[in-house]
Amino acid sequence: MRGTLKLRQAETMLTSKEDLMVASSFDDAIVDLTRVLELDARHGEAWQLRGRAYWGKGKALESEAERIEAEASNRARTGKSSKSDQIASEALANKKYDACGEAFGKAIADLTRALELNDQVGEVWQLRGYAYWEKGKALGREAGRIEWEAGLAEERGKSSKTAQIASEALANKKYDERDEAFGKAIADFTRALAINPEDTGALTFRGEVLSHPDVGRFSEAYADFTRALALSPNDAYVLEKRGNVLFWMKNDEAALHDYAYALKLSGFFNPDSFLPTALERVLLDDPENKPALEVLNLLESVANAKGVVEWAKKVIIGRKLLAEKQARQEQEQRELEKQKAQSLQRQAWRQAGCCEECGTPLGFLEKLGGNSRCKNHR
At what angle do helices 275-285 and 236-248 cross, to 10 degrees? Predict the structure, then answer.
């Protein structure tokens, strides 16, 4: 009875805290669920809920780290932070990222225990898949940080050859672990879909992993996002993700169609999407492209897209000016080629004893008089 009460309290607390995205807010739920598991180590629902709590804590820590980085970047850009402030912010963000990876690891462990007790719950497969996905991204960040720090040490002359080799080996190990985590995420989402083929969450998340640049299985990702949209046509998030896949597949116009529909539905521009680059590539090729201009028109009314709109308009103006310049240069080149051809023709006619203007053969007296043109062109 006591364990059941703690379980329900933890579940209620967890549901109320998930939207807050504050890491510490998940700790009470984790404590309560740990007490339930101390009473009954085979309580599958408690393992599932604690795994969910650790997953929520990991996401919250990730958000906190991103916020610290964004604030530090803004202060640096406006000249409101010293070098020591930047180093402190970077250290704090890295600490949050490390804790985030640890939380996802704990989520994976708890959800694995839940699946050992009951492997027929699609939601648990999906959640563990998402935890593996997040863990993989955390490992990728860690590998990138190791490479960056090693590069900085080498640049400053504070790194030996042995240290560089060790750093490279450690970074590669982290990348291998990341790839393994991504593979496990795909496998878990596939298991969730075997239980429920119409699970749009599993389709979407599997599509996200498949479309990661270091996985690069874009055709499969496109198929997953398309299936998800067939089940839920007005999902702006999935439309944007499919737009990103189309961007990677270099189908920019189709990508812009998806981005446009997503903008219509959400009214929000995601700065992490590839919309700006797809827009640039299309506008550089054709500044009058209708899908591109439609996206630009939609962005006009989106509050956080002002910079993209201004930049895109500059691209259009620049492309038109470039097109006009190219047209002038081509016309000038044609004129030069025409003049050159005419000059060669005149020379050939003169050498043949003909009028250099029309090619009419000149008479004996005209030649004797030194005329190079017939009487009609003198």
Answer: 50
Q: Which position has the token pair 């007005």?
A: 234
Contact 29, 49 (CB under 8 A): yes
**Do 216 and 244 form a contact (C-beta atoms < 8 A)?**
no
Strand partners, 361: 354
Could you give the percent of the chain with pLDDT greater than 90? 48
Please state, in angstroms and rounded to a whole number, the distance separating the CA atoms of residues 224 and 129: 15
Cα atoms found within 13 Å of the Cα of residue 30, Cβ hemisphere only: 18
Q: Where is pLDDT greater, at 222 or 151?
A: 222
Domains of the chain, first to last: 2-235 (1.25.40.10), 330-377 (no CATH)
CA dist., res. 284 & res. 291, Å (int): 13
Tell me the C-alpha distance between 244 and 251, whole Å: 10
Q: What tokens does 22 get?
A: 């504050």
What DSSP letter does each residue of 109-161 carry, written as one string?
HHHHHHHHH----HHHHHHHHHHHHHHHHHHHHHHHHHHHHHHHHHHTT---H
Q: Helical H runs in the chain?
A: 2-17, 27-39, 44-77, 83-117, 122-155, 161-195, 200-210, 218-231, 236-248, 252-266, 275-285, 290-299, 306-351, 364-368
Which amino acid appears at position 12 of this protein?
T
Interval 282-311: pLDDT, tens: 888 888 888 888 888 888 887 777 777 787
Question: What would the pLDDT profile of 158-211 be if each residue is shown by its tens digit?
Answer: 778 888 899 999 999 999 999 999 999 999 999 999 999 999 999 999 999 999
Buried b (16+ CB within 10 A) or exposed e, 219-233: ebbbbbbebbbeeee
Please give the structure tokens belonging to residue 290.
């209708």
Task: Give the span between the Cα atoms of 170 and 147, in whole angstroms.
Answer: 9
Taking only the tens place, the pLDDT of each residue in 104-157 is: 999 999 999 999 999 999 999 999 999 999 999 999 999 999 998 888 888 888
| 350 vs 58: which has the higher pLDDT | 58
